[in-house]
């Protein structure tokens, strides 16, 4: 049996969102680490999770915690923005502690070799981590030196070695539910637009995405494969969350939820038949939305859909390979409203092929649509994406490579159509005020208040808007 610490390194909400949005930034359960923890517990290991972000721990307090608890193994989550923190914190821990350090996560999957240039990191897991982590811990227990048989692993044996990729888990139902009992649940909080009632829990019903938007690495990370849990398995987890934690709101954080209409029909019908009274929301592509399906989802408890729209300019949509038409967007929004489901719409500012004039026109169109919530991410060329490679080759514009600012909230990419990064920042502020300070919008939000929870989340959203 090994004492294993699964660590989310310090990366504050202010660093992720900036000062304006840090007070309402999303803090949801780290499901990836939760799944790994469940697997390791089933093997008899002593497992703990330290989420330094929700515990508001800094660099020094995180290192102190590791040195005091003395785990045998530390598994560290690594994405693009916290990459430098992972590298530095590993060095500091290894100075004083004889511990094996394993790194995994999106950045490790995109670049499985580079973290191992840091001598403090012993292993990198790329791809789906559950089985690889389990096999690696078993090998460490037995002090095995030959790790060539562990798929999905990069390691050192005089040189950096990358084993073959691990095959994707065919049946996701075989995975135990995430180990939420290892999390300090009361410290987590969704953003105001993510929930209708509390307690709120995030889930995933699937893994992967078959699409190829040029700004997203999800397709590459998951090899463009899409796998679904069974409707029964997902409902069993919802029931557990209701019975054990009194869940009243579920948010599905899949990369894409609505790609299989037959699955959604089965899921919704069973939710209705079994009278599972819970609010839930999900993410959809507009080209999967159909009137009858949306009405069924509403009956089954769906109160809100998050659409990744990105733009209402067809040239821009084509440039980012969104593979949808503007009319499909307008139809989906219309049908969603008619079904009585709230709309959270994500747009991107600073797209390839975009100009300030095009963006302003998009914002004017958004105002006409009367959406419930609109969000603007900043176009960010993440390493491993087609956009990143094309910008490096001189296409679309120029970028800075400040790794810790690659969060979708800081401007690091200037398309050819813009004068400066500052121009993008100013237009983003203008867009938020243009949309949210309309008297019609303010009145509509006030008229929909039904509870004290509604008041709280609307006040939090308003305060964030003032600080943007």
Structure notes:
The chain is of the alpha/beta class and 468 residues long. 39% of the residues lie in helices and 17% in strands. It contains 17 helices and 17 strands. It has helices at residues 13-17, 31-42, 59-69, 83-96, 106-110, 130-141, 218-221, 231-245, 261-273, 291-299, 314-319, 326-338, 356-369, 386-392, 421-436, 439-447, 452-467, and strands spanning 3-8, 46-51, 73-77, 100-104, 123-125, 153-156, 160-162, 200-203, 206-207, 227-228, 249-252, 279-284, 302-310, 342-349, 373-378, 397-399, 413-415. The strands form 4 sheets. The chain has a 7-stranded mixed β-sheet with strand order 2-1-3-4-5-6-7. The longest helix has 16 residues, at 421-436.
Topology:
Blueprint: E1 3-8, H1 13-17, H2 31-42, E2 46-51, H3 59-69, E3 73-77, H4 83-96, E4 100-104, H5 106-110, E5 123-125, H6 130-141, E6 153-156, E7 160-162, E8 200-203, E9 206-207, H7 218-221, E10 227-228, H8 231-245, E11 249-252, H9 261-273, E12 279-284, H10 291-299, E13 302-310, H11 314-319, H12 326-338, E14 342-349, H13 356-369, E15 373-378, H14 386-392, E16 397-399, E17 413-415, H15 421-436, H16 439-447, H17 452-467
Parallel strand pairs: 1-2, 1-3, 3-4, 4-5, 8-11, 11-12, 12-13, 13-14, 14-15
Antiparallel strand pairs: 5-6, 6-7, 9-10, 16-17
Helix pairs in contact: 2-6, 3-4, 8-9, 9-10, 13-15
């Amino acid at each position: 049996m090994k004492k294993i610490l699964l660590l989310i390194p310090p990366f504050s909400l202010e660093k992720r969102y900036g000062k304006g949005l840090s007070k309402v930034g999303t803090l949801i359960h780290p499901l990836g680490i939760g799944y790994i923890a469940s697997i390791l517990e089933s093997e008899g290991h002593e497992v703990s999770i330290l989420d330094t972000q929700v515990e508001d721990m800094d660099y020094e307090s995180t290192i102190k915690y590791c040195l005091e608890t003395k785990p045998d193994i530390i598994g560290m989550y690594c994405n693009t923005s916290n990459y430098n923190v992972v590298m530095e914190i590993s060095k500091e821990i290894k100075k004083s502690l004889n511990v094996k350090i394993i790194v995994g996560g999106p950045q490790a999957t995109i670049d499985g070799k580079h973290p191992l240039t840091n001598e403090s990191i012993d292993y990198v897991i790329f791809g789906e981590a559950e089985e690889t982590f389990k096999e690696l811990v078993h090998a460490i227990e037995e002090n095995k030196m030959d790790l060539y048989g562990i798929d999905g692993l990069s390691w050192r044996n005089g040189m950096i070695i990358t084993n073959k990729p691990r095959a994707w888990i065919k049946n996701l139902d075989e995975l135990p539910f995430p180990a939420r009992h290892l999390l300090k649940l009361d410290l987590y909080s969704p953003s105001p637009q993510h929930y209708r009632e509390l307690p709120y829990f995030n889930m995933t019903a699937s893994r992967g995405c078959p699409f190829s938007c040029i700004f997203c690495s999800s397709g590459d990370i998951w090899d463009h494969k899409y796998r679904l849990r069974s409707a029964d398995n997902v409902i069993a987890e919802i029931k557990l969350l209701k019975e054990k934690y009194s869940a009243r709101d579920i948010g599905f954080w899949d990369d894409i939820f609505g790609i299989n209409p037959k699955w959604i029909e089965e899921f919704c019908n069973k939710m209705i038949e079994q009278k599972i009274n819970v609010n839930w929301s999900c993410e959809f592509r507009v080209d999967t939305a159909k009137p009858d399906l949306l009405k069924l989802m509403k009956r089954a408890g769906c109160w809100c859909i998050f659409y990744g729209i990105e733009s209402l300019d067809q040239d821009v949509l084509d440039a980012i390979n969104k593979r949808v038409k503007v009319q499909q967007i307008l139809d989906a929004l219309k049908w969603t409203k008619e079904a009585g489901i709230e709309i959270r719409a994500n747009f991107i500012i600073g797209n390839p092929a975009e100009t300030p004039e095009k963006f302003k026109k998009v914002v004017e169109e958004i105002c006409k649509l009367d959406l419930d919530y609109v969000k603007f991410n900043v176009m960010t060329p993440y390493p491993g994406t087609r956009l990143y490679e094309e910008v490096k080759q001189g296409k679309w514009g120029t970028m800075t490579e400040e790794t810790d600012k690659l969060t979708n909230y800081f401007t690091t990419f200037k398309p050819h159509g813009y004068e400066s990064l500052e121009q993008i920042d100013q237009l983003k502020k203008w867009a938020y005020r243009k949309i949210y300070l309309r008297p019609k919008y303010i009145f509509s939000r006030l008229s929909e208040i039904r509870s004290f929870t509604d008041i709280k989340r609307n006040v939090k959203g308003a305060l964030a808007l003032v600080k943007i």
